[in-house]
Amino acid sequence: MNETTPTGPLSLGEQIAAAREQAGHTQAELAELAGINKHNMSRIERGVSYPSHATAQRLANTLSLPLTIFPSHWSVER
């Protein structure tokens, strides 16, 4: 999912939003499926905050995304 925009590669939040939309989920649905607050889901997609390691794993699992889209220090199993 290494997509780009005319201004460059998609941010983490944009990648999550694109995967969510491709899966046919609203932010609220994805938040519920991943077990996180819908306000936090919005903040992650907007790039205002980043998910914790546990949240990143739940989002990756829920959206069938590789954990490698998240910053490298989250890609290592803790």
Unreliable sequence segments = none
Largest sheet: 2 strands, antiparallel
Kindly report how far apart the N and C termini lie.
Answer: 24 Å
Mean pLDDT: 85
The topology string of helices and strands comes to EEHHHH
Beta-strand fraction estimate: 5-15%
Tell me the number of helical segments per DSSP (H or I, 4 or more residues long).
4
Secondary structure tally: strands: 2
Strand order of the largest sheet: 1-2
| Helicity, as a percent range | 40-55%
Dominant shape:
globular
Radius of gyration computed on alpha carbons: 12 Å
Structure classification: mainly alpha
Keywords, please?
single chain, 78 residues, mainly alpha, two-stranded antiparallel sheet
Structure in words:
- The protein has helices at residues 12-23, 27-34, 38-46, 53-63, and strands at residues 4-5, 8-9.
- Helices cover 51% and strands 5% of the residues.
- It has 78 residues and is mainly α.
- It is globular.
- It contains 4 helices and 2 strands; from the N terminus they run ββαααα.
- Strands 1-2 form a two-stranded antiparallel ribbon.
- A hairpin with a 2-residue loop joins strand 1 (4-5) and strand 2 (8-9).
